[in-house]
Amino acid sequence: MRLPTSLFLLLAFTVLLRTRLAAQASPNVSLDDPRLPLVEHLIARGTIPDPSPMIRPFRRSDVIQSLRRADTTKGSVDAELVQRLSAEFSDLEGARWGVEARVGAQAYTRARRDLLRPGGPDGVQPYVDVRLEGVFGPVVAVSRPAVETRLKDDPDWRGRSDIEVTGRMAEAYLGLQFKWGRFWFGQFEQNWGPVGYWGIPISPYAYPRNYLGLDLGTRTVRLQAQVGQLRDEIDANGDVIKRYNFSHRLGVRFSDRLHAALWETTVFSGNDRSLDATFINPVGFLLLSNQYGEGDDGNVIFGGDVTWRAFRAATFQLQLALDDFQYEDRSAPTTYPDRWALTLAAFGPLGHRLSWRALYTQASTLAFRTTNPYENIVDDSVGIGRGVPDMDHLGLAVTIPVRAHWAVTPDLAVQRQGAARLTDPFPVDPADVSATPQLLSSPVETTLRAGISVSGRAGPLDLQATGGVHHRTNADNVEGTSTTRFEGRLQATLGLRGRGRLD
Length: 503
Hints:
Order of helices and strands: HHEHHEEEEEEEEEEEHEEEEEEEEHEEE
Number of helices: 6
Largest sheet: 18 strands, antiparallel, barrel
Strand content: 35-45%
Oligomer: single chain
Mean pLDDT: 90
Structural class: mainly beta
CATH topology: Porin
Low-confidence stretches: 1-19
Shape: globular
């Protein structure tokens, strides 16, 4: 059974017309908003509730509601920061428009955005973007084209790199929002997982791609789903292989302290294949409709999230993903190692003004890959969620708010990276299978980082910078190679902003 995208759009408009709409739509707070680390700082301290645990971005209206629930009485240590952010994020009443133009520069020691996997040359490049925003009752439209010449040096960029001036759409989406949820189409950076590292099912490791999504429910129960087409590939016979990515998630807030969710993500492909209703049913269970049901081809990862705030002093989070678990004869020489990924995170207040975060994550050697290379969890060889398998990472960070405008975050991290990559062929020979370890295949690269990040907005200035000393042993998984160097990136822009009503 096939279900074209146009049917999803028809369903969206039908539900929209038959449902009482909310008074006003609201755009997302983008993941590269320089004020977002200050919002995350308030969430970590417990000053404001998290609008959507484990899901980013959230909407501007959701941030405003959280800020308004904070204690801003005289003497509250976070009052000034809460009041300033609330004033900046507050929406105008009625339909509105917004324009923001930023001009500045990017400087980097390596062009790849993941500093713990340095790649590409260094450089200083100009940066320009223009954000156009329109809200018409229940409809929101956002478009942010960016001229970003750094892209041509980034090994994870899959666009043109043969020209001097390169650009991309940092954001481009339409949303229809009503009382019980929203529908949206377009592209923007997302992360499903704890703050501070790349999410397992979805992350901004790769540049954003277009999806059709829905978000239905209440604050207590919420269903989210999205489907998008990945880049085509060509097989050995010259046939066009169509590839699709679908993810859905059901979250339940049991109390103000406990939130849990189940989710699945899949990549399915085929020669001139179209969207298949078996794989894109938001309320279906892919494991049953796939491996243990109809047997359709597709690589499914099943996972769960838990967020628990304990004793008002700390919040603990767990994200666990299972790609494949060998429950039959585990001793057979042809039995593949289990495929999994997990993240453990914790955060809380530190003293009167600071906050802390700690995180440990790992992904097994064969995670995100399968015997059919066209169903690896990648888009044009770049990870959709985690950028690499065969790794683990331990990080600790402290955030210091400065004058209610800046988030200064010192951090320490250690990352171990095995030799496996998402682009490696899946082992099929029994000898290769038996020689594949569960985690950290040799030689293992180890990176130690001591760094600091600064982010914020003051008047027309937006600043985002991070840097640190990185010591790598077995660098690039080459035995005996060691390096110690500064790695960092900076983006500084000056902006002009305008807002008004649409009468």
